Amino acid sequence: MTSTDALLVSGGARFGDPWHPFADTSAALTEILQKRGYGVTVCEDADAGLALLASTLPPALLVVNIGWFGPERFSEPATAGLVAALQSGVPTLLVHSTLTAFPEWPLWQEIAGGGWTYGTTYHPAYGPAVALAKPEHPLTAGLDRLAIVDERYTKLWVDDQAGVFLEHEEGGRRHPLAWTRAWGRSPIVADALGHDSDSYRAGGRTTLLQLELDWLQSQV
């Protein structure tokens, strides 16, 4: 890989699910990344794609867009590749149902810095909504309300060390939707938005994703 390559790990095989159109959302992400000048490699086998990171030149960007609804974790070679990439400083974007994965895997919890808690986390029905930017975070400085069309994960757990920059209101409370963190030498953005391709066409989502990519690049 080169300094302008992005690896997009897309839901499929053991890491697909019945609820999310990963081919569509990964195509939307690919189009956005290509417009920013990245050469994009899409891998629908997460284990194979991540395992390669242990033995190849790291990409300029890693994007993980997977699903999960079982006991599986990444294979040992895939885990080793992911850890190697993050320890080398690869900017990493985790989107939507990626944050529902592996709720009992301590390593993944350290990496993601937040996620789904079964029996607690839920989401209102998919549809038009408003996300609330935190203007004090450098990623969303100067922003306020963002129009989205999406699922809004509610009552996610988030690590105290995470820098939440996006929230939404539900049940009279504000709930985190996206945050920044670091693991190894890598800057990480965890963004719970991105249910389907329409979500990536919403004005607020489009703005937010560009700012997330700007922030990741600024941390290298």
State the gist of this model:
With 220 residues, the protein is of the alpha/beta class. The chain is built from 6 helices and 11 strands. Helix 3 links the parallel strand 3 (61-65) and strand 4 (92-95).
Kindly list the characteristics that best describe this protein.
220 residues; alpha/beta; Rossmann fold; 9-stranded mixed β-sheet; two-stranded antiparallel sheet; 6 helices; 11 strands
Descriptive account of the structure:
The structure is a single chain. By secondary structure, the chain is of the alpha/beta class. The protein has helices spanning 22-35, 46-51, 76-88, 106-112, 197-201, 203-218; strands at 5-10, 39-43, 61-65, 92-95, 114-115, 127-133, 145-150, 157-158, 163-170, 173-183, 186-191. It has one domain (5-218): Class I glutamine amidotransferase (GATase) domain (Rossmann fold), CATH 3.40.50. The strands form two sheets. The protein has a nine-stranded mixed beta sheet with strand order 2-1-3-4-11-10-9-6-7. The protein starts with a strand and ends with a helix.
Strand order within the widest beta sheet: 2-1-3-4-11-10-9-6-7
Query: What share of the residues lie within helices?
Result: 25-40%
Work out the radius of gyration.
Answer: 16 Å
Order of helices and strands: EHEHEHEHEEEEEEEHH
Low-confidence stretches: none
Beta-strand fraction estimate: 25-35%
How many beta-strand runs? 11
Number of domains: 1
Please state the overall shape, judged from the principal axes of the Cα atoms: globular
Q: Which CATH architecture would you pick?
A: 3-Layer(aba) Sandwich
SS summary, helix count: 6
- According to CATH, what is the topology? Rossmann fold
The CATH class designation is Alpha Beta
